[in-house]
Recover the amino acids of this structure.
């Protein structure tokens, strides 16, 4: 279980503050919804460890993650942009998630191949990302998440920039992934339909309010 | 942490040099030196020639940039722009030699005048010569700054101008001038600063105590008059003035186009009219003649058979060996320092809380503006004189000082490239645990190898062509190709100097070619083109 407990984060310079207090049961999905600028991505970055909360705690299976480096956390993430190294091949882009120096074992090699097969990109291993379509690039990034095999998956606007057909394809992949691996998934989106299709619990932020403080909480738990 | 260490090391060298000057100042009457009429006239002349050089370069740069912008399809336009983009790395002694060959007593211009029965004109040495050479270096710089700006105008601006029937003078007044006006103070300020600290040109073309700059006066006090207290006084005056000027320079924030950009030809409504055609043709032809003739004349002189005897001279081989040792070492040192300073800058900028400190490493890279080569060298000379024979440290001094001088360029090339790569991939690297060597090797190097090679080529070529630091520390045993050229010109062995100039240019071109090849090797698809 992921627990985000009374987290508070203030953006340096602007004075804007966000707060969050919620949890995700193992194997379940949670979708963060709200207007852009509400702090959805910031929350993903806090959990991933790119940013540090000034208050509160983030725990996974009862152990605090705050002192852990991003790569050591039991999670993997799909960011809004720049998920792939443009100068590395597709295969290398997946493999670098298994070893940062690309020195992969035989078993890891197979894992990379399987992950590419899983997102239907077998045969694309030698290509460079700029030669792929947006949807294909997104799938390469997803293949890396898959190969990394971490219990928590963070997805920041995984469907943005995809048309309806690609969106449906990506949703299908995510559902299949979650079913096979019992992953906990946290995603941000601005379309309720995507959240519903994933069967995710929705945590909404009132984006209409021009407030300086936003709070993400489970509907059932007490507000922070 | 390399960045911090480099910033400290660079500051330490510069501050030690300045410290040595200040420490000596206690024993020196700086104010008494300042009161001397000779010193005052040197300061006046230094400011005057820099102001004139800046004025001329900017005043000619505007029409030249306008002509080049208007003539998108002109034959040779690309070549002229390319040439102007390397003007900064042409060794100053090569330009001086070209100036002598064109404008000297028996140069092309005088040949032409006497052929026309107009007699001879002796105008090269003194203020005119200095201004000619400074314009040779800085007109291309000014032109490129203005041209870059003019070419930012999109095609639809010109379509509108055509639609409203704007005449060339309306276009200048309402479109071009408002665009260029804002750039003029920065461009003029930068050229002023470059000419204010000019050394080799003033040393060779100044021709006497009435046209001497502070840099040359410091050099003469150290190397010829052995008047160290005068050297200290002049250096402190130089640092104070440079500090003031550099502060002004930063206030204007001048643009600095190093890379030859993409210069598209644009369809302009005023290109077809008769008068603009005549004006542009005149401007471009005159400028090309002025900029190309020294280089061609130097080459023609080098092809004369008389000069090649220099190759049999031991002096030449010694100078070549030192150049081959000093230039790549200084280039490499400069590039390493620039890379770690750039990394520190980017780290600080990205850190959020202490982002304001990011200007510090940038300023360290520009510290040499505060203390130009001769001043810096004089400071180190005084510092080491206390412990050892300062000239025995010559080679190391020349390498370190040349590296520092090229730092300003290298930092400006590498910081934006590193910034782009890191802001794109830092998160991804953190998420995947790619750090240290892996991050450098797999993520940064593939995108940075080209800018690194470019910075290395610039720094190496600048050091190979340097005729400032080497003049101060040069001895019979330690000389480089530019210093050899200076000695040959002083002995009126112009043909031999021309051969050395040609070989020096070939060497610089060779460095550039080899280093850029190295940067491109193994790169299948260039993310940095």
């Amino acid at each position: 279980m992921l627990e985000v407990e009374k987290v508070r984060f203030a953006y340096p310079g602007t004075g804007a503050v966000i707060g969050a207090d919620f949890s995700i049961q193992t194997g379940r999905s949670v979708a963060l919804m709200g207007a852009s600028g509400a702090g959805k991505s910031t929350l993903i970055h806090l959990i991933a460890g790119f940013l540090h909360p000034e208050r509160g705690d983030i725990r996974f299976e009862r152990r605090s993650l705050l002192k852990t480096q991003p790569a050591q956390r039991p999670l993997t993430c799909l960011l809004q942009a720049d998920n792939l190294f443009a100068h590395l091949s597709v295969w290398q882009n997946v493999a670098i998630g298994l070893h940062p120096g690309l020195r992969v074992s035989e078993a890891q090699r197979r894992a990379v191949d399987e992950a590419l097969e899983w997102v239907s990109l077998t045969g694309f291993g030698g290509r460079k990302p700029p030669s792929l379509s947006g949807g294909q690039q997104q799938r390469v990034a997803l293949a890396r998440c898959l190969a990394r095999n971490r219990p928590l998956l963070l997805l920041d606007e995984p469907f943005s920039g995809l048309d309806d057909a690609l969106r449906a394809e990506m949703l299908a992949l995510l559902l299949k992934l979650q079913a096979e691996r019992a992953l906990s998934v946290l995603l941000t989106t601005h379309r309720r339909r995507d959240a519903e299709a994933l069967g995710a619990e929705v945590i909404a932020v009132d984006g209409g309010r021009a407030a300086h403080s936003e709070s993400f909480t489970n509907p059932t738990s007490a507000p922070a | 942490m390399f960045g911090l260490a480099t910033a400290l090391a660079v500051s330490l060298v510069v501050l030690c040099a300045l410290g040595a000057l200040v420490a000596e100042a206690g024993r020196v009457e700086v104010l008494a030196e300042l009161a001397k009429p000779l010193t005052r006239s040197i300061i006046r002349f230094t400011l005057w020639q820099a102001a004139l050089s800046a004025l001329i370069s900017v005043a000619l740069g505007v029409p030249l940039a306008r002509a080049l912008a208007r003539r998108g399809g002109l034959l040779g336009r690309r070549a002229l722009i390319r040439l102007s983009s390397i003007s900064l790395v042409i060794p100053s002694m090569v330009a001086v030699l070209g100036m002598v060959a064109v404008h000297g007593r028996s140069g092309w211009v005088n040949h032409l005048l006497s052929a026309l029965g107009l007699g001879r004109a002796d105008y090269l040495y003194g203020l005119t010569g200095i201004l000619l050479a400074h314009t040779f270096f800085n007109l291309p710089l000014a032109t490129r700054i203005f041209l870059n700006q003019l070419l930012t105008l999109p095609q639809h601006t010109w379509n509108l101008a055509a639609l409203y029937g704007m005449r060339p003078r309306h276009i200048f007044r309402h479109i071009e001038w408002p665009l260029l006006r804002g750039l003029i103070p920065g461009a003029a300020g930068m050229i002023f600063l470059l000419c204010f600290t000019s050394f080799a040109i003033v040393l060779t073309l100044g021709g006497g105590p009435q046209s001497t700059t502070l840099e040359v006066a410091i050099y003469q006090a150290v190397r010829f008059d052995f008047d160290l207290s005068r050297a200290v006084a002049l250096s402190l005056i130089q640092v104070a003035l440079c500090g003031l000027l550099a502060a002004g320079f930063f206030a204007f924030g001048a643009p600095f186009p190093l890379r030859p950009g993409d210069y598209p030809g644009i369809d302009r409504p005023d290109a077809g009219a008769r008068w603009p055609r005549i004006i542009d043709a005149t401007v471009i032809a005159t400028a090309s003649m002025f900029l190309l003739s020294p280089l061609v004349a130097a080459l023609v002189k080098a092809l004369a058979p008389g000069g090649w005897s220099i190759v049999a001279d031991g002096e030449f081989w010694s100078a070549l060996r030192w150049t081959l040792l000093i230039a790549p070492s200084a280039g490499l040192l400069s590039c390493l320092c620039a890379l770690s300073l750039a990394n520190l800058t980017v780290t600080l900028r990205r850190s959020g809380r202490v982002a304001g400190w990011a200007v510090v490493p940038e300023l360290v890279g520009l510290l040499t503006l505060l203390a130009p080569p001769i001043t810096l060298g004089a400071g180190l000379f005084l510092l080491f004189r206390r412990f050892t024979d300062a000239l025995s440290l010559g080679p190391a001094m020349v390498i370190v000082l040349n590296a520092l001088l090229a730092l300003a360029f290298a930092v400006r090339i590498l910081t934006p490239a590193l910034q782009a790569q890191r802001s794109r991939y830092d998160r991804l690297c953190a998420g995947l645990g790619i750090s240290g060597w892996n991050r450098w090797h797999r993520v940064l190097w593939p995108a940075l190898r080209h800018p690194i090679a470019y910075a290395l080529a610039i720094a190496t070529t600048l050091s190979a062509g340097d005729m400032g630091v080497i003049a101060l520390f040069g001895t019979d045993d330690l000389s480089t190709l530019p210093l050899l050229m200076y000695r040959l010109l002083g002995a009126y062995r112009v043909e031999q100097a021309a051969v050395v100039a040609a070989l020096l240019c070939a060497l610089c071109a060779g460095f550039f070619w080899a280093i850029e090849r190295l940067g491109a090797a193994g790169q299948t698809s260039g993310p940095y083109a």
Notes: The interface with chain B takes residues 12-13, 45, 48-50, 69-72, 76-77, 79, 82-83, 85-88, 96-97, 100-102, 128, 130 of chain A (CB under 8 Å).
